[in-house]
Amino acid sequence: MRWIGLASAASxxxxxxxxxxxxxxxxxxxxxxxxxxxxxxxxxxxxxQRAVDLPGPLTYAFLPHTPYTHDLAERAxxxxxxxxxxxxxxxxxxxxxxxxxxxxxxxxxxxxxxxRTSLDAVPHVSGVNNHMGSLLTRHPGYMEWVxxxxxxxxxxxxxxxxxxxxxxxxxxxxxxxxxxxxxxxFLDHVREPAAIEAQLATLVKRAHALGxxxxxxxxxxxxxAVLEQHLPQLDGLGVRLVHVSQIIxxxxxxxxxxxxxxxxxx
Length: 266
What we know:
Blueprint: H1 2-23, E1 33-41, H2 45-52, E2 59-62, H3 69-78, E3 82-89, H4 108-120, E4 125-132, H5 140-153, E5 157-160, H6 169-175, E6 180-182, E7 185-186, H7 193-210, E8 212-217, H8 221-234, E9 240-241, H9 244-254
Parallel strand pairs: 1-2, 1-8, 1-9, 2-3, 3-4, 4-5, 5-6, 7-8
């Protein structure tokens, strides 16, 4: 009974947050924007299929060289979703990274070859974010190699998942002209519906405060259930759900950066 009470309280908090935003909603082009990335896709088909079938223009980050990445990325693209490469990078804790990982013991040529094969493994890829990476993303040289490669590969963007406060990924992207942004909120560090609803409410409030916000979640049953329930409520409540590339384009416009066209070729 206590569990139901917590979930209900968080749900009411989320709804009240959204309703408050609706009262101050401006015209569509000036309304707050929210993007949600679903990470860690490709290893499990049923969870991935359920995630891809979520309503609205979500963005999906697929691990390279996994059993279901190709089929699920094709399914996502066919449904008008945005597709990213969820690129494994070495972490401080030394966790298992899986295939396609970038590590500090790699030469520049090995790192670039690994990155290219990982990009080629994900159809319709528009951008990249880091999977783990709390060690690699704090090393300027390695991140510059990554951004140089992304710049040469095409009009791809980079989202810093910010797995460490010491990350220089966004700086390196800016240095090499790669369109970029950073994650604002992790939705499901705590895998409980009440906690996920509270984080979703925080994401919405941040979007109202800053104009846009990006949340990252995972294909956990708890996360998917919360999103299935609450994503339809975002429409018409002062918050517009968009692809990550749209937020990057808007941020570049707001800062006076040169216009950028998201990749349509991969």
